[in-house]
Amino acid sequence: MADPAVELLVELAHPFVPDVLARDGNESLTRVQLREIIRVNNLPGVRNERIGSVLHRLWSEESTNTNARSPQ
Fold first, then answer.
1. What is the distance between the alpha carbons of residues 58 and 56, in angstroms, rounded to a whole number?
2. Which residues, 6 or more positions from 58, have their beta carbon under 8 angstroms from its beta carbon?
3. What pLDDT is attached to residue 49?
4. Residues 6+ apart with CB under 8 A from 21
5. 3-state SS of the chain?
6. Cα gap 12→38, rounded to integer Å
7. Which domain holds residue 26?
8. How many domains in the chain?
9. What is the pLDDT of residues 26-66, one digit of tens each?
10. Four-residue CA torsion sign, 31, 6, 13, 11
């Protein structure tokens, strides 16, 4: 069963991810970048042990979006 706090944070943070990645020039979001998104946008945080779950979900979504945009 999915953690509602993780699900909410993924949904709220997701729109900010592409800009942060473009700004910093890396392909996948880091823990530091996620914490920055949470802090700067005043998003509800999650406990330290759950931040990895949020990152994995965001990586998964970015991977899916990138593959959907890639020419076949």
1. 5
2. 10, 13, 14, 17, 29, 34
3. 81
4. 27, 28, 29, 33, 62
5. CCCHHHHHHHHHHHHHHHHHHHHHCCCCCCHHHHHHHHHHCCCCCCCHHHHHHHHHHHHHHHHHHHHHHCCC
6. 9
7. 4-69
8. 1
9. 999 999 999 999 999 999 887 888 899 999 999 887 766 65
10. positive
